[in-house]
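queue> pop job 88
queue> type: inverse folding (structure -> sequence)
queue> payload:
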């Protein structure tokens, strides 16, 4: 392959997902490479690019690159995509309302206002869309919790205060993302293969983070009971999608404080077993 041929191929393939896609004006109204110039009538740097991918003007010659270099270039060409973020948020609402298995790609197109071609630019199908929603949500809540805990510190910080910080972040995050919370809860087993493995790995890190905080609060507690306590706390926090209205009388911060008091008080009492009296 000549450098000229490689330059043409790189422009075609260096797009999210690695698929060969048009670099002119997108079907759903977006703009690809050269789209701005096509709109105002001026020729782009590489000349007019037709929908058939036939390039009139020759592309500049570029030296050959190794595969790992191409991947690096593609990664650096992927800034935060506001359109994708909006699409994933709207798709999560559709899955939450209709259920993942009952939703078609056409349903998603109608609800999100994006064409099928526009959706397939970002995902290859419905399961990949669900994977991106789950991966995005778990990645964000994990990163946010880690940042929040960095602000509290670990050395001489009060372990209970750190646990309260985790609870506050989790509750306020999902109070703003209730549809995503419902999807994460209801469709936890809808992913398959490598997609499920990747999401489960992020979830495991998040659970480990909470269990570590509980260990700091109650270092003598058996590990199995700390693990059970962690999932009990997640149950309290995650169930809010079923009844909580952020616009109601209790704002997210107040709700987070309430859950923290109920759990931490109960968890502290559980460390000193007391007889349970039957009625």
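queue> result:
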């Amino acid at each position: 392959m000549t450098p000229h041929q490689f330059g043409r191929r790189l422009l075609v393939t260096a797009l999210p997902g690695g698929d060969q896609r048009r670099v002119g004006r997108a079907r759903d109204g977006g703009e690809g490479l050269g789209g701005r110039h096509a709109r105002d009538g001026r020729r782009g740097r590489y000349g007019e690019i037709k929908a058939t991918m036939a390039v009139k003007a020759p592309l500049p010659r570029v030296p050959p690159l190794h595969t790992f270099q191409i991947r690096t270039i593609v990664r650096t060409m992927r800034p935060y995509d506001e359109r994708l973020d909006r699409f994933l948020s709207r798709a999560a609402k559709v899955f939450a309302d209709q259920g993942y298995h009952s939703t078609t790609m056409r349903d998603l197109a109608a609800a999100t206002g994006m064409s099928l071609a526009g959706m397939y630019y970002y995902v290859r199908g419905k399961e990949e869309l669900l994977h991106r929603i789950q991966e995005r949500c778990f990645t964000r809540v994990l990163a946010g919790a880690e940042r929040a805990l960095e602000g509290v510190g670990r050395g001489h910080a009060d372990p209970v205060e750190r646990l309260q910080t985790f609870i506050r972040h989790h509750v306020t995050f999902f109070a703003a993302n209730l549809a995503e919370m419902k999807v994460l809860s209801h469709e936890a087993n809808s992913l398959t293969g490598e997609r499920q493995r990747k999401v489960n790995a992020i979830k495991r890190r998040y659970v480990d983070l909470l269990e570590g905080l509980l260990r700091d609060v109650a270092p003598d507690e058996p590990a199995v009971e700390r693990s059970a306590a962690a999932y009990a706390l997640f149950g309290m926090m995650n169930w809010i999608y079923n009844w909580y209205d952020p616009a109601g009388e209790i704002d997210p911060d107040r709700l987070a404080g309430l859950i923290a008091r109920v759990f931490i008080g109960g968890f502290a009492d559980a460390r000193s077993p007391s007889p349970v009296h039957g009625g």
